[in-house]
Amino acid sequence: MLVQEYFKTRSRLLEKALDQYLAPANEYPEQLHEAMRYSVFSGGKRMRPILFFATYEMLIGRKNINRLARLMPVACALELVHTASLIHDDLPSIDNSSERRGIPSCHEKFGEATAILAGDALTTKAIELLTEISNKKVAIDCIHVLTKAVSTRGMIGGQAVDILSAKKKVNINTLRYVHLKKTGALLQAAMELACVIEGAEENLTITLSNFALNLGLTYQIVDDILDEVGSFEVLGKNPGGDSRSHKATYPSLLGLEKSKMKAEKLLRDCYNLVKNMKANDVLLEFVNIVKDRLP
Fold this sequence. Notes:
Blueprint: H1 3-21, H2 30-40, H3 47-60, H4 72-89, E1 99-100, E2 103-104, H5 106-110, H6 112-130, H7 136-150, H8 155-165, H9 172-198, H10 202-229, H11 232-235, H12 241-244, H13 250-254, H14 256-274, H15 281-293
Antiparallel strand pairs: 1-2
């Protein structure tokens, strides 16, 4: 199967499941449910759930879309948590971004209060979905993995350090921490969740976790670069937001060329971690996707 077709078929499956799991927009309270759906169905790449599918299918040794139906609660939980983080990221008190994926941010369309509640509701819905896993030990393990990724040891911790670092002189280690937590933690969770469900051995889980963290760090470094030299069409929002917010970025600390070199090295590390694994073509495509974004 062509990798491009893999992404299309898994995305269609995910879209259908998300539509079924989310309350209708006209269900009371209507504005909250409409805001949740608006943000979830705003054209995201579904990178995290597809990475989860790809890891699981690599672990079982074959691509079989019929085997994915029972995984939908986990895949959708990943996407809902990611969407919630974007809603909160865009708020005036955090990144103050009026656009996301080329359309108005959730708070611009529905107001700040509804946007905050929509993000909270998506996160709690994600945990609710994980309780639907029939094997309760696996369900608890999945809840542990996802909540750790979201917690002060993961996305929220990264966001907190990012906020506290604004308008301050920070070093590269602090910036690396922010990127690993804000972006890497949920990618890591996607791969760890697949390992939990398939019962992968510890060493393999660690290797795949390192792949995810490197991929997440690279993705964010590329985002930092694009914020300086990219366009609205590429970013889905106006570039230069980081500099306007006086936020540290890899280019501001290392310069553009060294930042590109760092991203390229991390991509090579990603490749080397999985190059000898069987059925690794989709994971390698994720490396190529990030590489293709590098200007």
